Amino acid sequence: MALIAGCEIPEDLHYDVGMHVWVRFLPDGSAQMGMTDPAQTRAGKILRVTPKKPGRRLGRGETAAILESAKWVGPFPTPLSGSVVASNAEVVANPVLINKDLYGRGWILCIMPERLEEELGHLLTGPDAVAAYRRVIEAEGLRCIRCAD
Amino acid sequence: MEIHLLGALPWMETQLLYHALPRLARPAVVICWPETPYLCLGFSQDPERDVDRDFCARRGLPVFRRAVGGGLVYLDSNQVFFQVILPRRRGLVPVDAVYRRCLAPVQEALRRFGVAAEFRPACDLVVGGRKISGNGGGEIAGHPVVVGNVLLDFDFATMAGALPAPNGYFRAKAREMMELRLTTLRRELGAAPDREAVAAALAEAFERAFGPLETGRLDEALRREMAALAEEMARPDWPDHEAAPSPGRVVKIAEGCYVRHAVGGGGLAVTVVEEEGFLREARWEGPAVRERREAWERLATLLAGAPLSRPVLEARVRGWARGEGMDVDPAGLARLLAGRGGDEEAEGAGRAEGL
Fold first, then answer.
1. Which residue on chain A is closest to B241 by alpha carbon?
2. Which residues of chain A are at the B interface, by a Cβ-Cβ cutoff of 8 Å?
3. How many CB atoms lie within 10 A of CB B206?
4. Fewer Cβ atoms within 10 A, N terminus or C terminus of chain B?
C-alpha cells in the first residue's frame, strides 16, 4: 500500500487515474470498482449513491453511478465498457462507506467488461499507478482525509 | 462565456436552460425568474415520496426534478435565479472553490443593496446567520454547474405545504424554522427591490468576475436541446438509476438546521428540530406516549439543548427512564433522536429544504 500525502493507493488494484476510479478484477471476470482516496477526499462525505441498474450497458467514460455529497451531484464514470452486473446494496444503504472503507466495503458497482483487451491499456497498476498518482496529488496539492468514525 | 439576462420565463425553461447549455458545451451565466411558481426536487429525490403531490395538484403547482443536488425547493417570481455553467475541466472538481467563486458575484450584487451576505459552507449565503440564497450544484455533461437564487420574498406557507410531512407538528415546525432561519431582501430592506434591478446587479457582478461575457441568445440549437431534455426528463424512468432507500423524513432548513421525523418500534415516533448539532426540541408520539403524556413531555424538556451525540442522548434518556419508571430502550431512543449519525451530520435521503 503506497501512502502519498495521506492518500492510500493500494498497489494491487488497477486505476484509471484520470477518472479517479479503482478497479479490482474478480475471479468471474467482472470488474469491481470504486472511488480512489483523492476522489473521496475532494467529494467530501458521500450522502447518496444511485448506481445504474443491472443490465445497463455502458461505454468507457459513461456515468455508472451518481454520487451526491453536500449539495453537489457528480458522476462516477466507468473506465471500462460493459454491462452492469451488480451494485453494492450496502453502499447504497450506507454511502459513507465510500469515504471510510473505499477499497473494501465501499465498492460501488461491478461491470462485466466487453472490450477489456483494448481498454486495459488505460489502466495502471503497481508502481506505475503510484507514480502517476503522485504526480496528480502533487499537482493538485491534495491531502487525503477520511470521515471520522 | 455567454450571459443570458432573460427576465421572466416559462417556468420549465428556468430549469432546462442550465441543463441544456452544458450539453452544448456552452459555458454561460443565466439570470432569470419563472413566470409561474413550481416545486423543484433534487436529483436524488423521489417525485412520489419527497413532495406532497396532492397539495401540488390542488394548487396547480408543477413538480420538476433537476440534475443537481439539494432538496425540494419552492420557486416563484419573488426569486431571481442565477445559474453558472463553467467550462469543462479535467480532474477532480474543487467543489468548495467552485461554490465560493460562483457565489462571490452574488455577494457583490447584494452589497449594492446594502446587504452584507457571508458565505457559509457548503454553499449558503447568510445575512446575520439567516440564509438569503439557496444554492446547489453538480456536474452536467462534464461542466461544473452552480445554480441558486436571491430571495426578494418567500412564500413560507406554500413551501411548508408542499413538504411531505408525516404530521401537522412536523409541518408547523418546518415552517417555523424556515421563518427563523431564512431571510429575504424584503425582510432586510423593508421592501423588496425591483426584480430587474437585482438581475442587473447580478449581471454586472458576474461580468466583473467571469467577463468579458458575450450576450447569449436562445438560438435554435439551444431551444432544440431544451426540447429534447424536456422530453427526456419527463420520462418515468429518468434518471436511469437505482433508487436509494429513504432513512426517514428530513427537511433541511439551512446548513446545520433540520427538522426530522423518525419511527421506532411499537409505533413510537419522534419529530426532532436540530440546530448546529444540538437538539432544539423533540416531540414524541405513539401509543406509549398517549398513556403517559406528561412523562414524555418531561423527556422532551430534558432533551432540549442536548448535543446530538448518541452517548449523551442515551444517558439523558436512561436517567429519565429511571426517574419515571419507564421501560424503554435508551439506546434505541437515542438512535431515533440522533438521526442517521448521532456523531455525524443528520443528512439523509428524502430531504427537502426551505431553499
1. A52
2. 18, 20, 38-39, 42-45, 47-53, 56, 65-66, 68-75, 87, 92-93, 95-96, 136, 140, 142, 147-148
3. 25
4. N
**pLDDT-based confidence at B236, cuts 50/70/90?**
confident
Q: Say if residues A106 and A76 touch (Cβ distance below 8 Å).
A: no
What is the structure's pLDDT at B347? Answer: 35
Residue B255: is its pLDDT beyond 70?
yes
Cβ atoms of A119 and A145 closer than 8 Å:
no
- Give me the count of residues in chain B: 355
ipTM over 0.90: no
Average pLDDT, chain B: 90
Task: Please return the burial class of B169, using the count of CB atoms within 10 Å of its CB with bins 0-12, 13-18 and 19+.
Answer: middle
Containing H/E element for A99?
A: helix A97-100
**Cell numbers for B177:** 424554522
Whether A87 sits inside 8 A of B242 (CB atoms) is: yes
Q: What is the CA radius of gyration of chain B?
A: 22
Q: Is A73 within 8 Å of B344 when comparing Cβ atoms?
A: no
**CA dihedral sign of residues B140, B145, B146, B152:** negative
**Measured distance CA(A129)–CA(A135) in Å, rounded:** 10
Cα–Cα distance for residue pair A51/B135, rounded to 1 Å: 24
Which amino acid, B148? G
| Torsion sign across C-alpha atoms A101, A55, B48, B268 | negative
Q: B110 phi and psi, to 5 degrees?
A: -65, -35
Q: Quote the cell numbers at residue A127.
A: 508502481
A52 and B344 within 8 Å at the Cβ level: the answer is no
Q: Where are the alpha helices (DSSP H) in A26-75?
A: 37-43
| Separation in Å, CA B349 to CA B15, B198, B241, B244, B302 | 22, 34, 15, 8, 29
The answer to whether B258 and B246 have CB atoms below 8 angstroms apart is no
Strand partners, A69: A72
Per residue in B270-279, pLDDT (tens digit) is: 999 999 999 9
Rounded distance, CA B6 to CA A148, Å? 45
Do the Cβ atoms of B244 and A71 come within 8 Å?
no
